[in-house]
Amino acid sequence: MAAINITKENFEQEVLQSDRPVLVDFWASWCGPCRMVGPIVEEIAEEYPQYKVVKVNVDEQQDLAVRFGVMSIPTLLVFNGGQLVKQSIGARPKAQILALLEN
Fold this sequence. Notes:
The structure is a single chain. By secondary structure, the chain is α/β, with parallel strands linked by helices. It has one domain (about 5-100): 3-Layer(aba) Sandwich (Glutaredoxin), CATH 3.40.30. It is about 35% helix and about 25% strand. The protein has four helices and five strands; from the N terminus they run βαβαβαββα. The protein has helices spanning about 10-15, 30-45, 60-65, 95-100, and strands spanning about 5, 20-25, 50-55, 75-80, 85-90. A five-stranded mixed sheet has the order 1-3-2-4-5. The longest helix is centred in the middle third of the chain and has 16 residues, at about 30-45.
């Protein structure tokens, strides 16, 4: 399943009320490292159905970026049971992103 685009209108339902761990990718189209991480995030969405993978465009959803203190992108957040449990800033290889979800 492809990553889901998140807005402030669907954030609570898709992320906070999810019945499985959620990887949230805060990104922007002009961000070089985001363009490196984007395909990896999409791969994880396709290959690991036990996780929900969502993307937040910080240019379009500034309220969400502010709410979670996103100062640099890409920022990856992991939510489980409606709680923020992990955070990573900057481009990471697939193994490190999966480690965020698995540990």
